[in-house]
Known about the structure:
Shape: globular
Helix content: 10-25%
Radius of gyration: 11 Å
Distance between the termini: 15 Å
Oligomer: single chain
Strand order of the largest sheet: 1-6-2-3-4-5
Structural class: alpha+beta
Largest sheet: 6 strands, antiparallel
Amino acid sequence: MAFTRCLNDIKPGQFAHIKQLCTDENMHRRLLDIGLIENTKIKCIGKSPFGDPKAFLIRGAVIAIREEDCKDIMIDD
Length: 77
């Protein structure tokens, strides 16, 4: 069984691929709308001074996602 990581686990400058969204229905729809589907490449490009939210490059757009929501987004390298 493979070790599963969440989006919180990547640091600025690191890349990952979306594996699965484990969010509630409303958040799931929002994430799909911004392009977070399986195998989407995502890059962490920074974080706020207090560490939450983090900024991610997703399909050419910079999107801020809260730590609370990142924990429900499963990733692979």
